[in-house]
Batch of 2 targets.
Target 1
Amino acid sequence: MAKALLSLCGLQPSLDPQASILLLRLFCIFPICLLSLLGYTHIRRLFGCGCGLLFSLFVGFAPSTFYYTLQIRMYSWAALFVFCAFLASYSILQTTVLSPTKKASRRSWICMAFFTLLAAYTHYYALAAAATLQIFLLPLAWKRKRDLFLPWCLTALSQLLLYIPGFLLLYRQATAVAQGFWITIQYPEVLKEILTFFQQGALFPSLALKISGILFGLLLLLAIITRRFQSLPVKKAILSCLLPILFVCGSGLLLSLFRPVFLPRYLFPMCGLYWLLVALLFSSVQKKWIPILFSFVLLFLGTKSATIRLDAMMKSENAEWKETIEANLTPEDAFFFSDLNVGCQAAVFFAQHPLYFYNEFSWNEKNGRMGFSSLMDRSPEELANAPVSRLWIIDSEKTDLTARLPDNYSCILSKTYHFHPYSGQWIHLSLWQKNENHSILISKCNNSIRAIWLNYYV
């Protein structure tokens, strides 16, 4: 989708990096705007004006929304697709609860399958969330409508057939990741991160933990107090929101006991379900000052998180590393790095220059190298004969390629250290000149040694 948008607008990231980044950021913000708008168009109609307003506010101003929506990643679209799949499944569930004699419309089944497939092809945990919605749809409606089984099976079968390419991609990626696995989980830190995820964003973890503890305590109290005031459709909606979140968290943590496969940020595709759950509980309370107070607290936290994030994005230090290079750059310069977390910066902004890459961390085409197709694999030793006159080395805190350069390179700009606030990475820059005379001298010495060796033995 992102590539199609760039092509439609006539942009190429290698030629127009700044314009491409701006367009793609707007592209990732757009689905969250749509998700927030669903509070007015759908949630208001289903659960009342108060719940719709709260949902729009929570989705639009949550700290995690600002933090992840500004990233050029798949999370915001995954969240929209999962929530649209929920709306379709709830439409089916609502028909069975309110009108047991009526059948759910064919449109609801098609929409549920369509958005589930979109979610599945966008993010694997979005697949897990949307699939869980359908798995629990059957038992939630079984008591009131047994003839739901046949359309449910036909819908599930059609999705399985249409997701066959997705299964092949999943197998391919799983085998690739097995060669260079990177996820690590630490207990009990991961439990705290899950608890605070939707409230944290760019806020300090200690503050987010306190707010999350108060919120979860309040939600539990509201669930107990308002249970007798809630209608059956509302109770079904609460269960439909809660079960996917619990199932994905529980199964992710359980699988991670054997092989770490779960990170708290994988919860973001379910942000619509989470905030609808919160909105449903708050809108059920009789005293309206409670949801109003929490809305103001969340609005403050979201604005604070956005301020911190935007401040990090706009800091002049983000461009210092690039300005250092541009001040000393010549058309013949090349770049060399092994950590793609910092090297990707050069791959975006200096794509017209030769980009040499030492694959120190076992990246391959299947687990990320395809996004940097212009990189030329070279070990530090192989650069001795590379067609390079001047070489920029971009190191991170994990690498030190300068210590492994061949002897025919001499430093002409000592290593400088630049912090990149938005990514949180340190970029270590140094510029090296290739000494051709030194290479010629070494070549002559090697030839002389070879000639002496041949004369001696001949």
Note: The chain has 17 helices and six strands.
Target 2
Amino acid sequence: MIAYSIILFAVAILILAFGISIYMGNTKLIHDYHQTNVKESQRQEYGRSFAKGIFAICATLIISGIIALFSKESQLFKVSLIVLLAGLIVSITVIVKVQKKYNGGLF
């Protein structure tokens, strides 16, 4: 379980770096077709809202990694996977809502 936790932590750090960059206004990290209908005046707000979904993914990975790190039984590992799945669903839902609000749809 240590290797699994290390991988989750490493990916969380990478995603956190992307999230911080997007939050600071670097919306170029988001594909162009995801922001074709976003008005230039709303780019900063769009980036901040989008980054919140990215931060939620990061938090999900960290929480799941912590649970897996301390799990010696398969039951706790299952809890870690459930937390990971639930957190990713919530995070993707946040990103989809941001896309619909600012871009008018996913693409």
Note: The mean pLDDT is 91.
